Here is the input.
Amino acid sequence: MQVDNLETLYTACIAKLRNAEQQGLQAYDMMLQKARHPELRQALEQHRTETEQQIQRLEQIIQRSGGATMQVEDEIMPAILRENQKMQAMIGSDELSDVSLIAGAQIGEHYEIAAYGTAAAHAKLLGRQEDLQLLLQTLEEEKRTDELLTRIAERSVNQQAQA
Here is the structure.
């Protein structure tokens, strides 16, 4: 595929985001199996559900842009997931595992925050107001998830691991 204008680049970025979110769904399934702390499990379950909705929003944007068949493989999310799995394999306690799960999830969230922020800026520049609203909604969800994970870590998970 040749990307030769902002519109095509935007559509490719949205398709790449969809792929990243789809990969993230699989990661949340693994994290839910490993998470022990009740608040962490609840946060992961909630964000897994949000991720399904985020994929639907991206599908709406792709349909509107005429890129329904566009497939762009995201290579950043798999690298983040591999690093998270590598860390999990090195950990020997449930408490440390939860700390590592939060850290790994936040790395993924930070990547998504950057990607959605960029996509929203492009949507705004292109005058795609409906897309912009959907992207900003998702961006806020990603930020809230990151903040929630920080609160869970600071209030209990990190302290339990240190004890």
The chain is about 85% helix and 0% strand. Helices lie at 6-34, 38-65, 76-90, 94-125, 129-162. The chain has a mean pLDDT of 93. The CA atoms of residues 15 and 70 lie 7 Å apart.
